[in-house]
Amino acid sequence: MKNLFFILIFFITTYNVNSQVTLVDLDDWNGMPEENHYYKDVDNYLDPFVGTWVYTNGNTSLKIVLEKKVMAANPYYYEDLLVGEYRYVENGVEKINTLPTLTTIYGNQRSHNIVGNTVISKHQKPECGNCTPGEKRVNLGFSDPIHQLSGELILQRITVNGQPALKAYKRTTIYFISMDEKSPYSYMLVPSGEYILMKQ
After folding, report:
1. pTM (2 decimals)?
2. 3-state secondary structure of 88
3. How does DSSP classify residue 186?
4. For 139, phi and psi rounded to 5 degrees?
5. Digit-coded pLDDT (tens) for 89-103
6. How many secondary structure helices (H) and strands (E) does the chain include?
7. Residues 6+ away with beta carbon under 8 Å from 94
8. pLDDT in tens, 121-163
9. Which residue, among 11, 24, 114, 30, has the nearest Cα to 71 in the 3D structure?
10. How far is CA 43 from CA 24, 128, 173, in A?
11. How far apart, in whole angstroms, are the C-alpha atoms of residue 113 and residue 143?
């Protein structure tokens, strides 16, 4: 009987918390979070970007692994989110590898080195000349934890020789990961530019 009482209290509490959360379509979100809101990927725009993606050019490679987190909790709101990590090898030398931290359970999922959920259309900057009218891309944050810098990673789903692929445009925005200590570096270990990554 005591267990039944606790189960009943749990469901009542859960119902009350969930009933007070306002659902907002991720595609309609202006990027400014409000308390007790859930920014949901209603149309599953983030799903096609989930997976392992690899760019190769000779003995230089970039491997990105992306996962979707549903209803990830932030201090006062919830959101559906793409999180990821990466490994970059240049001329056969590994420059950075954050892939082992993909399984780290953070209190805030935005602590991952690739993270975000900004859905952008054909005409949003940077404009996409080869996007179809209704096609959606995503704009994610991209961090270099060694040089303490961050940038953007804009992803578009494409097909290369009949295989799923991503066209990735990576740029450094010179934001410091930690405002307490500024980075002595002005560049990220993964160079800015365009990458075509094949799904593995």
Report:
1. 0.84
2. strand
3. S
4. -115, 120
5. 999 999 999 999 999
6. 1, 11
7. 87, 88
8. 877 777 787 888 888 899 999 999 998 889 999 999 999 999 9
9. 24
10. 12, 21, 29
11. 5
